[in-house]
Amino acid sequence: MGDSRSEGEQLDVSVVPAEILPGKALAVEERVERRAAELGPRARLWPSLCAVYRAQLSRARVARIPLLFVATFQSIGIMILMRGVVDGGAEAHAVVAGSAVLVVAFVALNLLAQYFGQLRSSGGLDHYATLPVPPAAVVLGAAGAYASFTVPGTVVTAVFGCVLFGLPLTHLWVLAAVIPLAGAALAGLGAALGLLAPRPELATVLGQLGMSAALLLGVLPADRMPVFIQFARDLLPSTYGVEAFARTFGPNPDWAFVLRDLAVCAGVGVVSLAVATWAYRRAAVR
Question: Which ranges does the record mark as transmembrane (predicted)?
Answer without folding.
Answer: 65-86, 92-116, 137-166, 172-195, 202-222, 257-280
